[in-house]
Write a structure and sequence with these properties.
Strand order of the largest sheet: 8-4-3-7-9
Number of helices: 2
Largest sheet: 5 strands, mixed
Order of helices and strands: HEEEEEEEEEHE
Helix content: 10-25%
Radius of gyration: 16 Å
Distance between the termini: 55 Å
Structural class: mainly beta
Length: 150
């Protein structure tokens, strides 16, 4: 019984503990800014569906098509962590992960609701939108993600 109690306590602390995601570089950006998210999702390039946002790492200015994304702390929610890093490039000050006139998906669930940007007619538009699996990015020697031109 003591073992079961200790095991449950360890598992519960794992599911709500803060984790760190190492920094990386994004290249081939064609817009002024890039918003970077840690998400759980699936699908292909243009049809990537987001079910949960673990962390909005931030919105960064592009420097000649390159963004250096710093390490970030995020909270796990349940047993699974983020599956992908989503990068969205845009020319507005912020970007909202919300359905727009081209994509029909439900607004994702946020682990921290303060990461949500309220959608407007302008901030749902984007130039590029691409995702890379966390596993693949972690296996990259230089931690570089080259975003596609879609």
């Amino acid at each position: 019984m003591k073992f079961l109690t200790i095991s449950l306590a360890i598992l519960m602390s794992m599911s709500i503990s803060a984790r760190e995601f190492a920094g990386f570089r994004v290249e081939n950006i064609t817009a002024k800014k890039a918003s970077v998210y840690l998400v759980a999702g699936s699908g292909g390039f243009s049809s990537f569906n987001i079910s949960k946002v673990f962390k909005r790492i931030g919105t960064f200015n592009s420097d000649r098509g390159v963004v250096e994304v710093p390490a970030a702390q995020y909270n796990n929610d349940g047993w699974r962590g983020p599956s992908h890093v989503l990068v969205v490039t845009h020319n507005t000050a912020t970007h909202a992960l919300s359905k727009d006139e081209e994509r029909n998906f439900q607004d994702p669930r946020y682990v921290d609701i303060t990461d949500r940007v309220a959608p407007t007619a302008d901030n749902v538009k984007f130039i590029q939108r691409d995702a890379i699996s966390v596993r693949k990015l972690n296996n990259e020697t230089n931690r570089v993600f080259i975003i596609s031109n879609q």
